[in-house]
Amino acid sequence: MQTKRVVVALGGNAILSDEASAKAQQEALSKTAKQLVHLIKKGYQLIISHGNGPQVGNLLLQQQASDSVKNPAMPLDTCVAMTQGSIGYWLQNALDKELKQAGIEKEVATIVTQVIVDEEDSAFVNPSKPIGPFLTEEQAKDEMKKSQVQFKEDAGRGWRKVVPSPQPLGIKEYKVIQTLVDNGVVTISAGGGGIPVIGETLSGVEAVIDKDFASEVLAELVDADLLIILTGVDAVAINYGKENETSLFQVTLSELEEYKAQGHFAPGSMLPKIEAAMRYVKVKPESEAIITSLEQLENIEIENVGTKIRNR
Ligand code: ADP
Ligand code: MG
């Protein structure tokens, strides 16, 4: 069997259910690892990426709670690196166990990943992504006087820092990832969309890269045959949440273009996945993108399982 290279992007629910303890997240990831090993057994070569929204959010809260001169809160880029490490460790550990149990000899490695963004990206002029703790209006205005950071009112829940969400342009470590993949290693990289860095000096910035977009760039760079985006639904739908909701199974670029224009995909949740999938099959017309749930991962080869996106 020809080995298929597949980038699998894990959504929030693959890591965290309702409890944020290390133990609970490790348990969630052990279920995830079982599903991922199913794919390995089928002969797929896995290049894993993942989100970190809740984890980096909680880490920022912890940082703020103990912020002092002797123990200063770490900046966002460093916090992203920290969550790449912690989630990578949990998943590496869980995959090692599952692989061993399945009698498969394979190494797993996490790569701390820097993702290159353009400092001229318009996102830096208009930060849009809310992160971290909720503040009162007064606290937020105080913070804004002290520094350049922007705060915005978030859906009646309080004021939150907003950071830019620039487009990922490249992955600093992609050759390392490629080398590992070429040698049969299961990689975990671009966690949380990667650590955003700018310029020749690769300076980390206060920004958040969408993990779906970063995973797409990763899939292009490692020349994957397949991009699988795992999320909270078995398939993408049109008229989502309405009476006439209809799941999409086989869909082409031009069909998706039309549905997108009609506003079927929610910005900030499904839309980035759709856009990532569309870009991928546009750039690599022979490849396929699949959006589905972790539970359906073992069934993706079956017709009408998951949303399968092709160029034509
Ligand atoms: P992830 O952590 O996987 O990125 P998100 O919550 O950001 O998950 O995005 C996935 C969610 O988007 C789904 O669980 C679903 O609730 C929602 N969603 C919005 N629009 C659609 C749609 N058209 N079809 C299916 N799900 C949709
Ligand atoms: Mg998301």
Automatic annotation (TrEMBL):
- Report the residue ranges that make up the Aspartate/glutamate/uridylate kinase domain in this protein: 4-282
One GO biological process this protein is involved in is: L-arginine deiminase pathway
Extract the CDD domains matched here.
Answer: AAK_CK
Q: Which organism is it from?
A: Enterococcus phoeniculicola ATCC BAA-412
Query: Keyword Glycoprotein on this protein?
Result: no
Pfam families from the entry?
Answer: AA_kinase (PF00696)
Keyword tags: Arginine metabolism, Kinase, Transferase
Gene3D superfamilies reported for this sequence: Acetylglutamate kinase-like (3.40.1160.10)
State the protein's name.
Answer: Carbamate kinase
**Pathway(s) served:** Metabolic intermediate metabolism; carbamoyl phosphate degradation; CO(2) and NH(3) from carbamoyl phosphate: step 1/1
The record's family statement is: Belongs to the carbamate kinase family.
User: What GO CC annotations are associated with the protein?
Assistant: cytosol
Q: Would you say which domain of life the source belongs to? A: Bacteria
The UniProt GO MF terms for this protein read: carbamate kinase activity
Which reaction is catalysed here? hydrogencarbonate + NH4(+) + ATP = carbamoyl phosphate + ADP + H2O + H(+)
